[in-house]
Amino acid sequence: MMSACAVQFKRELSIARRRGSEWINPLLFQSLVIVLFPLGISPRPDLLATIAPGLLWVTALLAMLLSLDALFRGDFADGSLEQMLLSSQPLAALCLAKTFAHWLLTGLPLALLAPVLGLLLSLPVTGIATLVTALLLGSVTFSLLGAIGAALTVSLPRGGVLLSLLILPFYIPVLIFGAGAVTAAISGGSVAAPLALLGAMLALALASAPFAIASALRISVNG
């Protein structure tokens, strides 16, 4: 099983190299929003520092949504998805490997880019470490939950809007606690509770999401 997951993971990275624009677009989207946002509101550093935690999290969430619709759609179009369903390997494990590759190509770069964008928004240095930690935890949860929605809508011709409607309600708790952790770090409060809740949500998603993704794929392809 581990060998099959490794092969699946390498395949995703190989495909990503050929479709580089699909994974660069989320980074460009977040960067452009952060750069343009002060022009639309105000360049005042105190105002930007106040809204920076929420803005960074919202843009990261929306940027990840941009890449989710293509997570299984290419495999569905070329028949690879049916081969995954017919494989003797556990489908949940293959889905987990595919989702991890998605996070590595999307969520991880967004989390690493966040400190630079935070400084552009005058985010205090005291909140940078918490921002990165919270985004690393939250972005994995985003990928796992988003993959469920992508699996449910993979057979629909225009499932992007429906995917967003399905997934956004489940993203809200992650968004609230993630932005709350950064705000607490800036104000000098304790970040242990929001980070612990983000970790708990990640653990729950890791335990249940791969099986939900596998079931959703079977429903979409066979149903």
From TrEMBL:
Keywords: Cell inner membrane, Cell membrane, Cytochrome c-type biogenesis, Membrane, Transmembrane, Transmembrane helix, Transport. It comes from the Bacteria. It is found in: Cell inner membrane. The chain crosses the membrane at residues 23-41, 47-72, 93-121, 127-154, 161-186, 192-217. It is a multi-pass membrane protein. Its main location: membrane. It holds the Pfam family CcmB. The keyword Flavoprotein does not apply. Required for the export of heme to the periplasm for the biogenesis of c-type cytochromes. Belongs to the CcmB/CycW/HelB family. PANTHER family: CYTOCHROME C BIOGENESIS B-RELATED, HEME EXPORTER PROTEIN B. This is Heme exporter protein B. It comes from Salinicola lusitanus. The gene is ccmB.
